[in-house]
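Example for tutorial group B:
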């Protein structure tokens, strides 16, 4: 499908001025882990602000008045693209640290059947469920999958997202997981933003291995992970650790294989049932995601560690659940919390970080400021990219989201509408202010 794309302007020097609120999220002295407790709401806002980006990096941040008086800027005025943000809010581009973009079709049977109250088994019997996504990916060519991922990356940028973690996981054979990760790599090479690829070969046990999950885990550990590491197709290995997916013992085996091959680990944890976290902590997981069900002792343990709890309220919303992850409890205990979309065809078909933030505020009682930090700097920590992403300060990548609102709290307030006017991704402008 051909689609028109907004013009992309490559500029080596960009000056944004007249920003009503610049949310810098500047890191404090000696910040060595993700934001927690009161740090999570410290946005470090500059009013009437300006930002200068050169060669894809942020070089200075301050007030518009100071920027316009700067002798170097005066001298180089003609070489600089100046963007008048006329009262808009500028924040770090969102870091969506949990997405599943490699699939072919929406899961409309699931959607309709679930509304009618059908069970998981009834949905599968009607031709829905995860298997339908697996069949689609196994049959698809690499270029078709690449086009799907490319389109969604483009759409994400239009909503303010500039860094995306992208998982495979609907192929479930060595060949189709590699094909999925190659599609992610190709799409990433055509997008000005930043993509972090993750192997999710252990998403579910494929039907041909039903009742023989250990055999499938062996393939993940001995074939998939080595092949992916050899081709440098992923930075992380993810496991869906839950009832109906992979056990704690199997998750440990997969983490061990990932560690042996130099890959980081993260896991879908505690979505449907509680799993104790102790066996996994020696692997220093970058993130545990979902976290609807967590033991109190594990909450206390996570508060002492750098593993981020990534909350994905879009899944709870779309499944029509009454309960959401206990964000307040996690934050108040000192656990670093991030927000992500969990973009996927079955349980969270949204690419909107502002929507995830709105749900975080209304359903999980996070403050708008906490939602911003969780969607930016803590997402960057969850991907091991906090040295480059997630805040607006000299030396970091020029990743900005420009929102047509006068106050940052409006970003989570106007749910369902897109107020993002423009993004800058590694110094590349997309959209018009
Ligand atoms: Zn997920």
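The residue assignment follows.
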């Amino acid at each position: 499908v051909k689609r028109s794309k907004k013009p992309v302007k490559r500029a080596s020097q960009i000056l944004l001025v007249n920003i009503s609120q610049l949310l810098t999220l500047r890191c404090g002295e000696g910040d060595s882990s993700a934001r927690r407790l009161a740090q999570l709401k410290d946005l470090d806002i500059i009013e009437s602000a300006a930002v200068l980006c050169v060669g894809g990096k942020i070089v200075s941040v301050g007030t518009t008045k100071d920027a316009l008086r700067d002798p170097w800027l005066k001298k180089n005025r003609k070489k600089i693209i100046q963007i008048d943000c006329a009262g808009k809010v500028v924040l770090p581009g969102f870091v969506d640290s949990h997405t599943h973009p490699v699939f072919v079709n929406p899961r409309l049977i699931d959607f309709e059947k679930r509304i009618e109250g059908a069970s998981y088994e009834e949905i599968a019997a009607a031709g829905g469920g995860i298997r339908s996504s697996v069949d689609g990916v196994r049959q698809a060519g690499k270029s078709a999958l690449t086009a799907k991922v490319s389109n969604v990356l483009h759409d994400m940028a239009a909503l303010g997202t500039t860094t995306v973690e992208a998982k495979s996981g609907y192929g479930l054979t060595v060949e189709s997981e590699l094909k999925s990760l190659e599609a992610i790599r190709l799409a990433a090479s055509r997008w000005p933003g930043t993509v972090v690829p993750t192997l999710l070969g252990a998403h579910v046990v494929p039907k041909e291995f039903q009742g023989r999950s250990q055999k499938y885990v062996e393939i993940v550990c001995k074939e998939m992970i080595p092949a992916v590491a050899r081709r440098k197709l992923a930075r992380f290995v993810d496991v869906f650790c839950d009832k109906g997916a992979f056990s704690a013992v199997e998750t440990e085996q997969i983490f061990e294989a990932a560690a042996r091959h130099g890959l980081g680990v993260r896991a879908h944890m505690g979505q449907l049932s509680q799993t104790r976290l102790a066996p996994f902590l020696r692997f220093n997981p970058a993130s545990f995601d979902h976290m609807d069900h967590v033991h109190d002792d594990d909450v206390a343990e996570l508060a002492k560690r750098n593993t981020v709890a990534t909350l994905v309220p879009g899944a709870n919303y779309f499944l029509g659940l009454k309960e959401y992850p206990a964000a307040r409890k996690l934050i108040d205990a000192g656990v670093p919390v991030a927000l992500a979309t969990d973009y996927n065809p079955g349980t969270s078909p949204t690419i909107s970080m502002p929507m995830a933030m709105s749900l975080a505020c209304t359903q999980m009682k996070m403050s708008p400021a906490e939602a911003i930090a969780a969607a930016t700097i803590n997402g960057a920590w969850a991907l091991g990219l906090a040295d480059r992403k997630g805040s607006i300060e000299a030396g970091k990548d020029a990743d900005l989201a420009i929102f047509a609102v006068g106050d940052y709290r409006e970003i989570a307030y106007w749910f369902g509408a897109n107020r993002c006017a423009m993004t800058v991704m590694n110094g590349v402008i997309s959209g018009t202010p």
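The pocket of zinc ion is lined by residues 98, 100, 268, 342, 344 (CB under 6 Å). Compare this with the pattern of hydrophobic and polar residues in the output above.
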